[in-house]
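Note to self: keep these together.
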Amino acid sequence: MDLRGLKGFGAAADLPSDVLKLGIVSGALTETQASGMATLFPRIRFEFLGDSLRDIPADLDIVFVSVDGAAPENIEQAVRQCRLHPAALRTVFVLHHAEISNTRALLQSGAVDVLPAPVGEAALALCLERLVARGRPAHVAPRSAGQLVAVLKAGGGVGATSLAVQAGLMAAVRAGEAGSVCFADLDLQFGSAALYLDMAEALTVSDCLAVGEFLGDTQFATALAAHRSGMRLLAAPRDVTALDALTPQLTDALLTALRRDFTLTIADLPPVWTAWTYRALQMAARIVLVTRLSVPHVHLVRRCLLCVSGPLHPGSTFRPHIRLHGRLPAWRMPRPAA
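Structure:
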């Protein structure tokens, strides 16, 4: 019997609160294995998914994913996907051509277990028994949203990214608390923050877009690499990326998640105007415009001011910054509530 495409099997359609939903990406387990485990574990509801991790439903508790250890790019992609999964989703990798190094990399990425393929019945049963014993993860009460600072450029070559990176480093050092400051390089085509920070392997915006609907649930506090100053970096794509790769909806989900996980987020925007950059400005508590003191740049500033006057929301502030001698804008960490 072909179980692919069915809503699920193993538990009743009306799921009790203690029943776990387990999704199986194509190639991870066979239908015979799934049906056999469904008999042994009535508290788990099994369902087969498509070939892509983007098709994972948002209400899953466990997902089984097949990975080929002989393909380094497959391992790298699996590691990134696991880091970007919501904290409530537990990932079990079924590893073909298993090696110690690959197994360690997958476990360090946040996987709850790595099973060598072909998966034996005993190993699978022990894995599921541990997952059932853990139950559903406890939900942590969300903290208040952090502050978002959007950085605009009145023309290219004004040094906005350099100043923004330096300001972020200073804010991170002042904060003292590791991981409270994030720099998001949203210049999809010419972002260079990773180069300034010497973090070439940092997670990129393109990596985040690959998770689709899970973007807003991503735990960026753990997914993003940290600079030695404590500031975390979301890097620009390594290759030139179309500006329409981001949408207002994705921008909203991304920046909302960053504000949830960090006290201060500095978003470096591209020197172009699109629907999603407009949305980023709407969400910003502060907008900093970096320019030079020249006649052409003054005209560019005037154009930017006309555009910026619309998206400001109540309570936001706009601060033009003219770069004369490399001075940094006075960004301060928000004071904790009394």
